[in-house]
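Risk register update: the risk of archive-format incompatibility is retired. Evidence:
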Amino acid sequence: MVSMDHMEYTAGTEILRARRTGTEEALPERMMKTLEVAERAAEACKREKDVETARALHDWLCGHTDYAVTEDSDEDDCCIGALLTGQANCDGYADAFCLLGNLAGLEVMCQEGTAGDGNHMWNLFRTEGTWRMIDATWDDQERTLDLWFNTGYDRAVRDHAWAEEMGPELMAETSARDRTVPEYRIRDMGDAGEYLGEALRAGEKTVDLYLTDDCHGSQEELKAEIEKTAAAPWSCLWTESLRCMRVWLGPDI
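Archived output:
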């Protein structure tokens, strides 16, 4: 678990301090109820490997919480909104994941910075000696996506910015080994058809196709390659900042 000395104050850190010092009974009622929900979720999501636990918590949070488009409540920007009302902004998602992760025995912290057009908050997660990024807020904008789960510096900097001296160093390159969806890195557009054929022969239903920095292809060219290869119906979603196309294959899409 992350040392509390290096974590900024949030409702989640106050709850964690109370939990670790045995002073939960002194917490305000809403925080106490939040702790009860978080403890149940953390216990239910524990898996054999840390990365599997983190993924289960990520999916639980995304399934339990909706993004708060308007600031209707002061609780939206902390774990209380995310876990009790199911409504939170990015601060609330990050605070909730930090609370859940630490209760589950993981090393998780919040990271402040910017993303897209404004201020943003997400999480850092440490496993196997390296820190990785998890942005549950962005993943929850599309219910079936996990593109911002367990990512390294190479992908984080594509659309996230932060004061690097204010946080731990991220894993340099995102590892395909711990990704939940098979991914292929396209350096030449001709590779796309070959990779998709391989995925179809393996019975894959979902794949991610990443265009590398030295690939000059476009999403329209990528779609054309998919159309030539996929005999069955397919659908896709393009993420511009990552230059990634998630492809769903097969008759049951």
